[in-house]
Amino acid sequence: MRNKFIFLAVISLLIFIVFAAAIPRTTNIDVFLLKGVMSTRIPTATGFFKFITFFGTPAFFYPATAILSLIYYFWRQWRGFAAVIITMVASWIIMEGLKLSFHRNRPALDPLQTASGYSFPSGHAMMGTVFFALLALWLIKKVPLPLRRVIPPVTVIFLFLLGYSRIYLGVHYPTDILAGYAAGTSIFAIFLAWWKEK
Is the four-CA dihedral 163, 124, 133, 29 of positive or negative sign? Predict the structure, then answer.
């Protein structure tokens, strides 16, 4: 099983590299897709996606990570406590390093929110993938069996909406989001490989 997780991490990393290498060649496609999504804006959807996008902000991740790690701590699951903190902190450092490395400016096509920092990869997509995958992993171990089957698809749908919200609001290109998903999946797969190894 551990080898499968390592394989997933490598494949996801390669996908990220492909998106990173293609940035200069995908700008026109990115702008075309971004304009297409932005053309669907309506007040109800705008309110919905502004709500969804909150779950990819530091204002959410800091307390949510603390709560999830403390749950492990109070249940005396020390490895889970340390693993959640280490994984989230490492993900944040990697994300910021990647943004500084690629220096991709954010779209300037009528954004509906103010977003600081660089655009590639999307922190919402990357950090969201890591955190909500960690949360799903914990829930799967705790909820009754019938509900366990619901958690993975619900997590995937939510992550899609989180990434889509950034495009809808005009603060990320589609390739920023896809690269963020790939990077986040790679980090989570490494976490799983490490977790199973212990």
Answer: positive
Per-residue pLDDT of the chain (198 residues; tens, 9 = 90+): 778 889 999 999 999 999 999 888 888 899 999 999 999 999 999 999 999 999 999 999 999 999 999 988 887 877 778 888 998 999 999 999 999 999 899 998 888 888 888 999 999 999 999 999 999 988 888 888 878 889 999 999 999 999 999 999 999 999 999 999 999 999 999 888 876 544
pTM (2 d.p.): 0.91
Contact 176, 163 (CB under 8 A): no
Q: What's the distance, CA 74 to chain centroid? A: 27
CA distance 11 to 1: 16
Spatial distance between the Cα atoms of 119 and 98, rounded to a whole number of angstroms: 10
Rounded Cα gap, residues 120 and 115, in angstroms: 12
